[in-house]
Amino acid sequence: xxxxxxxxxxxxxxxxxxxxxxxxxxxxxxxxxxxxxxxxxxxxxxxxxxxxxxxxxxxxxxxxxxxxxxxxxxxxxxxxxxxxxxxxxxxxxxxxxxxxxxxxxxxxxxxxxxxxxxxxxxxxxxxxxxxxxxxxxxxxxxxxxxxxxxxxxxxxxxxx
Length: 160
Prior knowledge:
By secondary structure, the protein is mainly beta. The chain has one helix at 122-127, and strands at residues 4-10, 18-24, 28-35, 38-40, 46-55, 59-64, 67-68, 76-81, 84-89, 98-106, 109-119, 142-149, 152-159. 4% of the residues lie in helices and 57% in strands. It is elongated and about 80 Å long.
């Protein structure tokens, strides 16, 4: 975060100030700032994403267990655009589920993150994240709160 343009000014009583600007670039090894597990149903499109900050820009590789993945290997595509690398599954099958490793590398070092592609049921995919499905396809939540303060005790239970 200390990269940027700096200005230096030198002055004396003899001449007008001399001002020069210089651009400073701070090189640093990659660090992965975003990597999120993803749930997808069999037969659907699934995308794993990995974002890494680095100067110079990181190069990415994807692995499943000890096997390095490449575009065209099976039904996957790897796309690297700037700081983000995505691993796209066009038609997820049972064998695709599991842990994947995103590796970001530049001349100063490397880092990696483990990302899981996991199975979700088709009904969960339709209801959306965080929904609780019961037998009649409705959602319900319960909230319990407990406050203790000296001798004052209050307990509330709310269901909606």
